[in-house]
Each structure stands twice: as C-alpha cells, then as structure tokens.
Amino acid sequence: MFSGSIVALVTPMTADGQVDFDSLQQLVAFHLEQGSDGLVIMGTTGEAATLSLAEQYAVMAKVCRQVAGNIPVLAGNGAMSTSDAIAKTQFFADLPIDGYLTVTPFYNKPTQKGMLAHFTAVAAATSKPIVLYNVPGRTGVDLLPETVAALATIPNIVGIKEATGSLSRLAELQAVCPTDFSLLSGDDATFAQFLLAGGHGVISVTANVAPAAMSAICQAAARSDKTEVVAQDQRLQALHRDLFIESNPIPTKWALWRMGLITSDFLRLPLTQLEPINIAIIEQALQQAGIHYQDRNSLSGVV
After folding, report:
1. How many folded domains does the chain comprise?
2. What is the average per-residue pLDDT within 8-32?
3. SS3 of the chain: helix, strand, coil, percent, to 5
4. Residue 226 is a catalytic residue
C-alpha cells in the first residue's frame, strides 16, 4: 500500500529552460533527508505536459538511481488518449519505478464507461501497480466512486489520488473499495482531515517545501493523535492556500528557488514565473510555516 507523505515533485530547470539535473539531485537528497515517504515524478507539478518523453524518461531514471529503492517512486503516465497513455506506460517500462500515477483523460471529457475502459486498458499494459488520479478541476471529468470500485477489482489498480477536496467523497470511497486500496488525498488544504477520517496518505504540493512537517502530520495521524495533526497542519494552512495563488507549480518553484534548493524558478511556456504582486504573500506563508528562505535581492543570507 502506498501511504504517508508522497511529494508531487517539481522538475527544476535552468534559466534557459533545460532540465537542471544538479538541482534535481539536490531536491531528491532533501526529501530523503526530510523523511518524505515517496515521490511522484512527472505529474502536474512536474510539468510533464511541457517535457518530451525523452526528458521525462531521463528525469525518472536519475531519480530512481538516487533513491535506490529507499522510498517508492511513482511515474506519471496520463494522457488524453488511451493509446498515448499505454505508449507512455510502455516507454517507461524498463525503469525501476514502483508504479504509475494515472490521471483521468483530460479535455475530451469521457463518460464513466469510457474511463472504466481507459484505466482497464492501461492497467493491462503493465504488471506494475497503478494509482488512479481524480482531479476534476484540471481535467473536466470526475471519476465517481462506483467506477473506482469497479477498477479496484483489477489486481494492479491499487489506489487513488482523490483531489476533489471532499471528505464526503472519501467516505463514499471507503464504503465501496477494499480495505487495502490506498486512499490518498490530492488536496493539501483538506489532507489532514482526510487522514483523520481514515485516509492513508497524501500526494502533496506543499511537501515540496515542507517535507518534514508533512511527514510528521502523516505520522501523527497514523497514531490517531488528532491534537498534533491539527496543530501541525495549522502552521501550513497558508502554504496549502498560497502555493495555489497562481497555477501550480508557479509559486512552488519560486519558493524552492528562494529556499536555495533549485537554481532557477524557470517554467516552460505557457506557464510563466510568479507575479511580483504575489511575492510577499508567498514569503509570509513560508514564514508562518517556519521555513527559511534567502533574501530576494541578493539571494544570499537567510531571512
């Protein structure tokens, strides 16, 4: 079962837009040291939509070598069409990943019947575990609990990242899915309550910049320590909110750059860098979470 604090990892880039493998190595080391329970590579936060398949493969290979089996690595393999999702799955097949994160097909708005057929076909293309990814705000479709229940009968479909932010949706999934089916929050703002209600973990954007705190919350939830969960999560609420003040991962990359963990906050078009009007908002969120960052003018010294 995939569980705990799993990071939806950004893909660092140089100022001229190339993948920054040195910064990537630094980021992965940071998460291994800070206690993250897993990594998602080439999800939404990783800007998979603007990287070539060759670049995606190279990033995954680099991460897998560095992680060396110490924590699980999930690879994003989602696509608009079933044939493309299968092709991506097979393209990554020889990598030592622990499974795939497969988002609902986006833009073309398939029916529940279509999504059932889609995920069934993708699962048949691999023996590795698949975690479904439901994020209606991004894709325009909602993978409903009855469809998830049907997919959960397929042996290598082992969980779901549920990003509706609805705790009632969690209860619906719990009612129809096997007890060993991983229920992972995809919504940082509500993930603590998701865990306290019986969820198994989170695939998180906030964990990019606050991995130790996110891991501590997951551990407290596993102990059923509600007081600790709520207290720890309260410090992160501004981050949960403000890391989405612009399209993800714009604010997260800026924060990581200011923390000195990546050398540039570059994003490939059509995403652009953080608007100056939002800088103070992210700074305040970092301060509330107790996260140190570098001075914006000199990028030296610690605030």
Report:
1. 1
2. 98
3. 45, 15, 40
4. no
